[in-house]
Structure prediction request, 628 residues.
Amino acid sequence: MTAMRYKILYWLTATAITAVVLFPIYFMFISSLRSGAEQFQVAYFPSVLRLENYSRLLTDKDFLGALANSIVVSTSVALVTVMVSILAGYAIARISFTGRALVSGCLLAISMFPQVAALPGLFNTIQGLGLYNSVGALIFSHLMLTVPFTVWVFAAFIREIPVDLDESAMMDGAGRLRTLFRIIVPILMPAIATTFVLAFIISWNEFLYALTFSLTPVSRTVPVAISLLSGTTPREVPFGAINAASVIITVPLVIVAFIFQKRLVSGLSAGAIKG
Amino acid sequence: MANIELKGLSKSYGHTTVLDALNLSIANGDFVTIVGPSGCGKSTLLRMIAGLDTISSGHLFFDGKIVNDIAPKERGVAMVFQSYALYPHLSVYDNVAFGLKGRMPKPALREKVLDVLERLQLSKLAKRLPKQLSGGQRQRVAIARAISREPGVMLFDEPLSNLDAGLRNQTRLEIARLHRAVGSTTIYVTHDQAEAMTLSDKIVLLNGGRIEQFGSPLDIYRRPANRFVAEFIGSPKINMLQKNEALLLFAATPSASDIGALGDVVLGLRAHELEAVPLDGASLKARVSVVEEYGDRAYIYVETEKFNTLLVMEMTAMEDVKVGDVVGLAPRVPEPLVFDLESGARLEKGQAA
Prediction:
C-alpha cells in the first residue's frame, strides 16, 4: 500500500515539476504561431497555424546573419574552451610547477567574478587588439566567461583519475602529450562532453558582452538581434517574431544536448583500478 | 637483462630523509624482494629505480651506467602496479599493445601481443575491457603488459595485495615460473614475508630508510643480522628471552654455562625450537594460554611468572594440549641466537657482548 502511495506521489510531483518547466516553452511555441493582435488574447491552444513570424525571420538577412554569427561564436568558444581546459587542467592536476597553487586559486576567484566587473577592462583589451565589432571580440570575451571555470572543473576531474595510470603510461614509454591524449582524454570523454555543452550554452545565451562589443549586424549574435527586433510601428513590440526567434534559437541547443546525451550520463573511469 | 647497483642512494623531502644512503648490488637475472614494515621506504626505492621518483643524492647504475636522470622509458624497466593501473578504455589486447606501438612494425607487434597473451592464458579475453575482468585476470593483464616489452628490469609493487588468499598463492607460483622463463632482473616489493621467502633469490630488509640485511631467504632466516631482522622474518614471531630467562630454560643443558658467560644480551628461539616435555624433570613449567590449531600443527602460547612475555612453541597435531594445561618447557636446539642487548646486533659464538 505504501509503495503504491509512494508511486502516486512520485508521479504527481514529477508531473507538476515538468509542467512548470515546460509551460513557458510551450507557450512560447504557440505564441510564435500567432500574429498581431491574437497575441493579446489568452489562449492555450493554437487556433490557426500561421507561419508568418517564421517566414519573416527566415527572410530577414540580419537575423540570419546573427544566427550564423551565433553558431560560429558558440562552436568556436566550446571547442577552444575544451582544448584549453584539457591542457591547463592536466597541468594543474599533474605537473608541479612554481605558482601552481596561485594559478589555480586565481582561476577559481576569476570564475566567481561578476560579469560586469570585467567589462571595462575587457573593452580596453578588445579595442587594443583591434577586435571591436567583430566575431573575434565575442569569442574572446566569452572565453573569459567559460575557461576559468572549466579549467578548474577539468583539474578536479583529472585528479580523480588514479595517477598510477599516468605513471603506467610513462613506464610504457609514452610522453606527457601521448599520455594526455591517449589515456586521460578518452577517460575524460563524459567531462569533455559536459564542458562542451556548458560552454556552448553559456556563449549561445550570452547577452551583455555580445551587446557591448558588437555595433553592426556583422558581429551581432541572436540574443542581441532579438532585442533589436522591431514591429511595424515604434510602439509595437513584435511578440510573435520574438517568440518565433526564441524557438529557432532553442533548436540548436536541443540538438547539441541530444548529440552528447549518451556521453553525459556514462560513467567516468570504471575498471581502471582494482574496484 | 641488467644488473643494478645503488651507491649512496638517498631520498629526502625537505628535512625528512626517507632513504638514507643505500648501497646495494643486484646481479643480472636475480629475483630480489624488498620487504619491511609500512613506511620503511620500500615503495619509494622501487619508484626511484623505475624513474618515477627523483633521486636526492647518490647514484643508480644499470649495467655500470648512471641512470639517475634517464627517463623511465629509456631505462628498459617495466612495472606492475599495486592497483594494476590498466587503461580502462582499452581492451586487453590494446592495453598490452600500448607500450609496443611505434617500436616495431604492425605485424610483428600483433604477433608479439598475441604471444604474450597466450603465455598468460589471456587469449580468450583479448577483446574484453578491464572492467569485465576479475581481479586475478586484471593482474595477469598487468603482468602481460609489463613483460611484453621484454624489459631488462621488472618491477613489482605489492602486486598480490589486492587478491584473495587462494589466488595470491596461485599468482605467486605463476610469477616464479614466469621469472624463470623470462629471466629479467626482478625487484619485488611486498610486506608479506611468505612472498619474500618463497619467491626471492635475495631479500632486502628495509627499516626506517636503511637496509637492515641483504641476503638469501634462508640466510636471513637462519642468520639474521640483528634483532629487528630476526623479529621481522619468521612466523610466528621469534621468542626473545632475557638472559636470566634463557638460563632457566637451558638450565639442564650443556649450553647453560656458555649462556651464563655472556654479557648483556637477549636470546632468540623460534617456535619450532621449543618443545613441551613431561612435567617431572622439566626445568621450567608454564601454563598454556592460547592454542592456535592449524590441523597439521598447532602453535601454543604459554606463560609463566618467571617470564615477562608469552612464549610461542610449535607442536605436532598429535599432542593434545588445552588452554589451562601446565606443560614442561625445553629447548630443542643446543643454542639460541644471541643479540647484543644495546645495539641489537647478532653475536657469533665466542664473540663477546
